[in-house]
Amino acid sequence: MTQLATAPPSGGRHTKRTKPHRRFDPLPFLLLLPTILVLLAIQVYPMFYTLVLSVQEREPSGWQFVGLKNFEILLDSRQLGESAGHTLIFLIGYATLTLTLGFIIALLLNRKSSLSGVYITLLFIPWILADIIAGVVFRLLVLPDYGLFSGVLQNPALFPPRGLSILTADAPRPWIGEFPFPPSPAMVYLILAATWRALPFITLLLLAALQTISNELIESSRIDGANRWQIARHIIIPLILPTMVVALFSLTLGGINGVGMVFSLTGGGPGTSTHVLSYLLYSIGWVSLDFGRAAALALILAAINLTLIAGTLRITRVQQRSI
Amino acid sequence: MQVATESQAPADLRALLTTRGQREGLLANLALLVITLFALLPIATTVLISFKREEDVTRKPPVVFPCDTPTSKFDLTACRWSIEGYERVVLPMPSPGSLLGFEIKGRMLNTYLPNTILYAISTALIVMVLAGMSGYAFSRYRFPGRDAMMIAILAITGVPLLTNLLALYQMGASIRHLAEGLYNDRVYIIIVYTGFFLPLSVWIAKGFFDAIPRELEEAALIDGCGPLGTLTRIVMPLVVPGLTAIFLLSFVSVWNEFIAGYLLITKNDLKPAMFGMYDFLGQNIINAQAVAAACIVIALPMIVVFLFARQSFFRAMVEGAIKG
Amino acid sequence: MKPRFALIALLAIIVLLLGACAQPTPQVIEKVVTQVVTQEKVVEKVVEKPVEKVVEKTVVVQAATPVPAKKIVSWFQYDQNNVDPKADERVGNEYLRKTIPIFNKEFEGKYVWENQFTPWDRLAAKLVAAVQAKAEVPDLIEAGGTEVNNFYKNGAVQDLTEWAKAQKWYAEMDPSALKICTTPDGKIVCIPMANRPSQVFVWKDLYPNGFPKTTDDWLKEGERLKQAGKYAMTFFGSTAFNGDGANRAVFQAIVSFGGGYDDGNGKLKLNTPENVAAVAWLREMVQRGYVTEISFAGGFQEEEAFKDASAGAIPTGLFGYRYINPLVAPSGKKYEKKNEQDMLDAIAAGDVILQPFPAAPGKKHGCGTGVAALFIPTGAKNPEGAKEFINWTLSPAHNPAYVKGPGGGLPVLKSIAALPDFQTPFYQQAYQVASASECKVAWPTVVNVTGAKMAVMNAVYKLIKTDPKADIATELQKAEDEFNKTVK
To answer: How close, in Å, is residue C257 to chain B by CA atoms?
Structure first.
């Protein structure tokens, strides 16, 4: 990224050759000014404020500097480990499921039947719903005793011995130590709900990538005797791999930071079985009002996010394309 | 960046379809049909629940259709559909003086949704203009710090919203404290939303400007159009679809945003609709018909907007995701 | 020079847009706030900064009347504008809708009462956050007695000791209620408005041998009810609403075993023999299947099992009566007014009885104290108005309505308690149960009450529900240590 910042400012074919008399043009800066001001106030300042908060603690008299105590308490707590475990399981399940299904659906849509447009439109509706609404919708379906799916799930004949009530069912015993695997039914359901909402976007992304692959290429390899698996393996997948990576990162970022669906679907429960990192941040900061510790956790989350973004940049080589 | 909804299959591909290919097409269609039905199932059931009566929503075990009678399991003539849930959201109260003969007392309709509309439209407009300006600057000019700035804006999209809210809450309170009288909750939340949804929009806008061939502008300039003329007559018409897409994307983002409104807005009269949903969530959730009706009332406008402008959405999303 | 034009045009557009968006908003707000309020501001502002403000407010001056009235802003968990007849908080909503105009009429020209609805599970956190950030605070907030030390230690509320002692009603105030509003160092920081200790609502017919007096007997009764296809109890067992269950039935059980949460020095003390015994008993109840599964669903769904009499008892706060309806008695008799009257009717008819929580062998019936109380936050703009409001609400003419509405409990003033309104079976039984139980404050010294609630409830949930083999003492100790590390 360093090579970016130092990239020659005058490169490219669009230097202001039309106006040789001006060497420094303030116009782009003026155009950017409002954006920069808004971003400084709403995004950059809060970052630094969070940094400052993370080494402080609230006393009734005011803020006190406590060094790294907030981080120590946080890293020492079982809550963090448990929530990180839940987040990891959520992300793996959510990303795998969404990418696989998205790829399959995109392949199906890429056949370009006359109905594709209709399908895309209908398939896309879940994306337009707010995460909090989607959470409520899925909660209503499995409301203990009354949800439409509860009638089937809570039938002891199908799920012995007592039937399955997703919102109250216990997590199975962890296989390894305290790592929350296998996940609780509520976590599985949360993954399904999140997948349902993210799937349209990922499908669209992959479809757009698939459509950039020329038919000639596929046809010629088919004539050369390649079977369908070979075409998929050696032509399609390598070509859409960068998009897959973009999709993966976009899913991961959304998955780490999203709190709305946990909020309205499970509320972190039953017990703590769907407590993810973002929900932990919410509850430390806004429920316990421990802003210092919440800020510390927020910084950890931001670091993970920025690492992911840097990774995306590297892989998609957006630098080269944009300069 | 073509998207499949422009669904003309290339003729050569059509010609290659064998009987086997047609059979596969049928299978693929069938698979898509099943997938689509699955995708719409949760929405369909929510609509179904919203039209039930309380007595049918709270039955154990649940019934899918409220159409059973003591004698038969399903009797279409006996269906007990009701708009009870919607009545609880709308709360029409008879009021002889008013235009329709009743007054809407539901907070969702008379307060929260209007708030959401105000926030969403204002934010989307500002984001569109600012992103347009910045996108133009990034796309058409080379200046020192340009690339660093673009990367910085991209990096900002990675900072979790929840992180910023701690500071933004404090900032709102401080501004109010310092400039009592000038501070306005609505303006503040609109600026906050703008800051949230601006970074990605800048990148999307840049992509749209990049896609406009500069030769067009240069030709216009040579033909005697001034820069302003070039901008308004040549560039603007070409970029309008892109800006529309940014507007719509921001509009939907603000509409669907929950946590910032929930944590920053303190007065009930200023709450947006998503926060208004909390009126139903913080309480006994058994009245599923009312909760479902509220969901539909909030989500329906977005679905309608989407159905009418889906091409714009697709364009902005693909642009934003690939570049951003 | 030409790019300038483009720039100016763009900037002009932005200014116009910003203007277009920003301008209408103040108008909207002014509409919402009553006229009188703006007038008052004008007068103040004119006095302070005559030059600056006159221009800004000239429009309003025309509407000014000679007498300015001061706003009294309150935060209640009730919403006067929510007219939904089936809203969860309909009783409180209705009370505000009726009472605000009465108050405003009586204090016309002096005060205007403006209530800002705040969801119940956000009230306390919202106040503390607002005080810390110096954001807007109300003049009055109604909250439970559990928040007393939290508010006090965070400097969120005003000391009312001197003022309270000088008031007429002080002499006849229920001392136990007043004690809940008193901090460990003896300051009165809130005024109790209604007393609502936790009790057990019981379907009499499901306990034909009488409701058990001891926890052991309750286990036996549980087995009997299980054989009959019923449940001994349903309760707030979920971790929902930030662990609020820790204030409810779980705490009743803990106190009934002689335990508690608070070490008296601002920290948690969970790993005690009493608490371990209480959790072990709860675990027995749950694991043997005497407790409804829906107890753990959250969203107050546990109440459903009592409404349809599938569970024989629901331990909860006294104010629970107003939410748990409609009812179907074990006999099939229906109470279907769908408001608080259903429970009162069922109690009057003898179908439902109020009982103390069964006690562990050798212990007393336990109960969690609860008062509905009014606090005056630090930084309130109109504390005088707030005090007059409290006096008005405690006056004989207006107190009964409050106690029956948002209060949802027993009157705190002797003269009010003596009124015929409060001699019905519900109040008689509630008094009896309260005097038969030993009521404890859940968090006398813990400051971060919400964090503590979450810590307790997560641990209890794990022990009684998901991990019935885990060692109770170890888990309680872990929860205790982890929370105490965050205590300053």
So the answer is: 30
